[in-house]
C-alpha cells in the first residue's frame, strides 16, 4: 500500500507527524507538505514563482519533503515528480481544527484531497476539532488511523474523496461514526476592528460559536453530538437543477 500524506499546517506540524506515526503500519508513507503553514489557502496553485522541493530532517532523521507552495502543489509534485510508485490513497491531515460547513471551501487540507481526486486517486481529508478544552493530537491521530483503516478495507473508488472530522473529546467518549452532509449555512463571521500604534485601522477575522448552528444530518451537528463525521465530497460544483432551469430561458445573441 503506497500512501501519500500531506497537509496545510506545514511539514513540521504535530498533526502530520502524529498521523504518519500511526498510519505507517498501513503501508509505505511518503510525506510531502508545504514548507510553511498554508491554512485557508483553499485550492490555490502556484503560477508566479518556481516551486522547490527539499528533503526535511528532524533530529537527524529524514521525515519527508517540504515544498514552497500550496497543498494542491504538494499533491501535484508528489505524484508527478517525487513518488516512484503511484499512491493507492492520498491522505491530507491531521489538520488541527475542524473542516466542516462552508469552511470546506477555504480549507487547504480539503483542497489537497480534492486535487488528488481530480487526478484520479482515492483521497481522505482528516481534521481534528481541537479546542481549548481538548487538544490531544496524539490520541486524535490514533482515532484517525482506525477510521482510515476501515476506509481502506472497503476500497474507496479512485477519484472519490471523504472528509473526516474527529470531535474534540477523548477516544472513549466518541459515540461512533455518522455519515453526514455538508452544513451549508453562513456562520455569520465578523471582523474585529483594531488600531495599530500608528493610529491606522486593521481588521481581524473572528471566529463564531458553531455550537448554535444545529441541523440534523450535517457534519457540524455530528461533531457537536460527539460523533466522528464522514462526508463524501464532489469537486463537480455544477448546479444541475439550475442548469435545467436556465436552459429553458429565451436566450438570444
Properties at a glance:
253 residues, 7 helices, 11 strands, alpha/beta, 27% helix, Stationary-phase Survival Protein Sure Homolog, Chain: A, nine-stranded mixed beta sheet, globular
Structural class of the helices, strands and pairings? alpha/beta
The share of residues in helices is 25-40%
The main sheet orders its strands as: 3-4-2-1-5-6-7-11-8
Shape, principal axes of CA atoms:
globular
Tell me the β content: 25-35%
The poorly predicted ranges are none
Instruction: Name the CATH architecture.
Output: 3-Layer(aba) Sandwich
Distance N to C terminus: 54 Å
Superfamily (CATH H level) name: Survival protein SurE-like phosphatase/nucleotidase
CATH classification, class level: Alpha Beta
| Count of discrete alpha- or pi-helical segments spanning 4 or more residues | 7
The number of E-state strands comes to: 11
Give the count of structural domains.
1
CATH fold naming: Stationary-phase Survival Protein Sure Homolog, Chain: A
Cα-atom radius of gyration:
19 Å
The helix/strand order is EHEEEHEHHEHEEEEHEH
Main sheet specs = 9 strands, mixed
Q: Average pLDDT, to the nearest integer?
A: 94
What does this entry look like structurally?
There is one protein chain. This protein is an alpha/beta fold. It has one domain (2-186, 214-247): 3-Layer(aba) Sandwich (Stationary-phase Survival Protein Sure Homolog, Chain: A). The protein has seven helices and eleven strands. The longest helix is centred in the middle third of the chain and has 17 residues, at 137-153. The model has no long low-confidence stretch (mean pLDDT 94).
Amino acid at each position: 500500500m503506497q500512501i501519500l500524506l500531506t497537509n496545510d499546517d506545514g511539514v513540521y506540524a504535530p498533526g502530520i507527524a502524529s498521523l504518519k506515526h500511526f498510519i505507517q503500519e498501513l503501508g509505505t508513507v511518503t510525506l510531502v507538505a508545504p514548507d510553511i503553514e498554508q491554512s485557508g489557502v483553499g485550492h490555490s496553485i502556484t503560477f508566479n514563482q518556481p516551486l522547490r522541493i527539499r528533503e526535511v530532517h528532524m533530529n537527524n532523521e529524514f521525515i519527508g519533503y517540504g515544498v514552497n507552495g500550496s497543498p494542491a502543489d504538494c499533491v501535484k509534485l508528489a505524484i508527478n515528480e517525487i513518488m516512484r510508485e503511484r499512491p493507492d490513497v492520498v491522505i491530507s491531515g491531521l489538520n488541527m481544527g475542524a473542516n466542516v460547513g462552508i469552511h470546506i471551501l477555504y480549507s487547504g487540507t480539503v483542497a489537497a484531497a480534492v486535487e488528488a481526486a481530480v487526478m484520479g486517486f482515492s483521497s481522505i481529508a482528516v481534521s481534528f476539532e481541537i479546542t481549548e478544552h481538548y487538544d490531544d493530537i496524539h490520541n486524535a491521530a490514533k482515532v484517525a488511523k482506525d477510521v482510515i483503516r476501515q476506509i481502506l478495507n472497503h476500497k474507496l473508488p479512485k477519484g472519490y474523496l471523504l472528509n473526516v472530522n474527529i470531535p474534540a473529546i477523548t477516544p472513549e467518549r466518541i459515540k461512533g461514526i455518522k455519515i453526514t452532509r455538508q452544513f451549508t449555512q453562513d456562520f455569520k463571521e465578523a471582523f474585529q476592528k483594531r488600531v495599530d500604534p500608528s493610529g491606522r485601522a486593521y481588521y481581524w477575522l473572528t471566529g463564531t460559536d458553531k455550537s448554535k448552528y444545529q441541523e440534523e444530518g450535517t457534519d457540524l451537528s455530528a461533531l457537536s453530538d460527539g460523533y466522528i463525521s464522514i462526508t463524501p465530497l464532489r469537486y463537480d460544483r455544477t448546479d444541475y437543477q439550475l442548469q435545467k432551469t436556465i436552459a429553458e430561458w429565451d436566450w438570444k445573441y
